[in-house]
Amino acid sequence: MSQRHLVKAIARRWPSIILLTLVGVGAAVAYLNLATQHYSAHADVLVVPPAKQSTSAVAERTIESYAHVLGGRSIAARVVEDLGLPGSTGSVDRHLDARVLDDTSVLRVTADSTRRQQAADLSQSAAEAFVAWLEAQDTDLTASVVDEAATPTDPSSPAKLPWLLLGAILGLLAGLVVAAVRNAYDRGIHSPAELEEASGAPVLGAIAYDRSAVQTPLITSLGTHHPRFEAVRILRTNLQFLDIDRDNKVITITSSLAGEGKSTTACNLAIALAQAGSQVGLVEGDLRRPRISEYLGIEKSVGLTTVLVGRVALDVALQQVATPGLDVLASGALPPNPSEILQTSAMRSLVSDLRHRYDVVLIDAPPLLPVTDASLLASISDGAILVVKHGETGLDEVRTATERLRSVGARLLGTVLSMSPVKELSRYGYGYGYGYGPEYFEKAAGGKRRS
After folding, report:
1. Is the bond into 158 cis (omega within 30 degrees of 0)?
2. Check: CATH 3.40.50.300 for 189-444?
3. What average pLDDT score do residues 273-295 get?
4. CB count, 10 Å around CB of 244?
5. pTM of the complete model
6. What integer pLDDT is reported at residue 6 of this predicted model?
7. Domain segments of the chain: what residues?
8. Residue 102: partners with Cβ closer than 8 Å, 6 or more residues away
9. Rounded CA gap, 148 and 41, in Å?
C-alpha cells in the first residue's frame, strides 16, 4: 500500500486514535491524583561584607562554599533541633537544597515536603540557622534573611503539564500503532476508489448505510427525496449511460459473498427502471436463498424452476407487482441441483425469450465465491454488476470474484458499494441527489443494516 493510502487508512480510524489519546490523558490524570504530592518553599539569604567593602568583595568560591553549608548536614541538624522533628538529620538533609542566585551574593535554600507548611518551615529554619552559624564564625561577613519562606499553594511535583503531555503523546502513539496494525489486517473495501482499483470496473453507485432498511428495504416505501431513493436513481442513470454502443439488456446482479445487499439492490434498481418508463423483467435467479419474492410479497412456489422443467408456461409464471412496468419471475420450487438446472439449454432459451419481451432484464444471482451459479448466469447475460459491502468485503474477495466472471467470459459492467457510512460517501460525492447532503440522511435514517 502506498504512503498516501496508508495515511488515508489511518485517517479513517481517527475515532480510535482520539479515544486512545484521551485514555492516555486519563491515565496521566489518574496518576497525578494517586501520586504523592510534594510542595516546595524557599528562603533567600544575603551574605554581606563589612561596610568598608562592596558586596562584590565576597569571592565567588566563598559564596559557593556557603551554599554547600546551607544545604548540608550541619544546618540540617540545627533544623531538626529547632523544629523538634522526629526524623534523623539525614532525612532532613535530603529535603534541603541550596544554590547561589546568578551573579549575586544571595543564597537560596529550598525545602520540599509532602506537607505545605512543613516545606515553608524547613526552608525558613534552614535560612535562620545559617545566619546564626555564620555569625558564630570568625569572619567579617554577615548574613540576613532577605526573603522569608512562604507557604506554597500548589504542589511542585509531580508536575501536571509534563505528565498530561506525556500521557497524550503515549496515547496518540498507541492509537497510531493500533490503527496501523488494524489496517495491516484489514483488507476491506473502504472507498469507491479502492473498489474501482480492485475490480477494474467503474463504480456505478454507492448506497449509504440506512438503519431503517430492515423495516423498509424497498424504495417504494420511502419518500422520493430520501437519500437511498436518490442513490438508486443515480445507479439507474449511470447504468443507462454505461457503454451505450453495446446492448446491455440482460444483467446479472451478484456479490462476492452473502449479505452484501445484492437482492435489495436488484429489487430497487428494477423498480427505479420501471418508474423511468422501461419494461423490466426481474428474475429471482438465486435458487439457494431466494429473497426477492419475500421483499416484493409475491408467490414463490411457481417461477423459474417450474418454467424450466416445463410444468408451467412463462406467461403464467410471470407476476405483476405494484410498480407498473415491472414483472417478476420468482424462484419457484428450490431444486437440489441449482447449478445443473441453470446451465441447461432451457435456461438459455428462457433468457432469450425474456430479452425479447423486456427493455431490461435483471437476474438476482447467488454470491460468486461460494457457488458457481452466478458465473453461469453472468455468462448468458450481457454483463454483471457486483455489489460490494463497505468495510467487510475484502480486496482479495473482490479480485477473486472478478476473476470468476472473466474465466467464463462474462463482462463486469460495474460495481455498487453498499452500506457505506454517510460521511464516507459525502467525501467522495456518491449516493446523493442534487441539494441533499449527509445531514438530511442522518435525519432520515434509523434501525439495523440490511443484509
Report:
1. yes
2. yes
3. 94
4. 8
5. 0.63
6. 61
7. 3-34+158-184, 39-147, 189-444
8. none
9. 10
Contact 271, 218 (CB under 8 A): yes
Quick one: fold of 39-147? Alpha-Beta Plaits (3.30.70)
Same fold, 39-147 and 189-444: no
Dihedral of the alpha carbons of 156, 158, 162, 163, in degrees to the nearest 10: -160
For 174-226, the pLDDT digits (tens) are 988 887 776 666 667 888 888 998 899 999 988 888 777 777 888 888 888 88
What secondary structure, in 3-state letters, does the chain show?
CCHHHHHHHHHCCHHHHHHHHHHHHHHHHHHHHHCCCEEEEEEEEEEECCCCCCHHHCCHHHHHHHHHHHCCHHHHHHHHHHHCCCCCHHHHHCCEEEEECCCCCEEEEEEEECCHHHHHHHHHHHHHHHHHHHHCCCCCCEEEEEECCCCCCCCCECCHHHHHHHHHHHHHHHHHHHHHHHHHHCCECCCHHHHHHHHCCCEEEEEECCHHHHCCCCHHHCCCCCHHHHHHHHHHHHHHCCCCCCCCCEEEEEECCCCCCHHHHHHHHHHHHHHCCCCEEEEECCCCCCCHHHHHCCCCCCCHHHHHCCCCCHHHHCEECCCCCEEEECCCCCCCCHHHHHCCHHHHHHHHHHHHHCCEEEEECCCCCCCCHHHHHHHCCCEEEEEEECCCCEHHHHHHHHHHHHHCCCCEEEEEEEEECHHHHHHHCCCCCCCCCHHHHHHHCCCCCCC
Confidence of residue 10 (pLDDT cuts 50, 70, 90): low
Q: List b or e across 336-357, with b for residues whose CB sees 16 or more CB atoms inside 10 angstroms.
A: eebeebbbeeebeebbeebbee
CB 284 within 8 A of CB 329: yes
- C-alpha 271/C-alpha 232 separation (Å) is 9
**pLDDT > 80? residue 21:** yes
What is the grid cell recorded at 248? 446491455
CA–CA gap between residue 172 and residue 22 (Å, rounded): 8
Task: Determine how many CB atoms are found less than 10 A away from the CB of residue 382.
Answer: 20
Q: Interior CA angle at 198 toward 239 and 343, to 5°?
A: 65
- Cα separation, 78 vs 126, whole angstroms: 8
Q: Is the pLDDT of residue 305 over 60?
A: yes
Average pLDDT over residues 366-387: 94
Cα gap 36→16, rounded to integer Å = 32
First to last CA, the chain: 30
Measure the CA–CA gap between 247 and 194, rounded to whole angstroms.
28
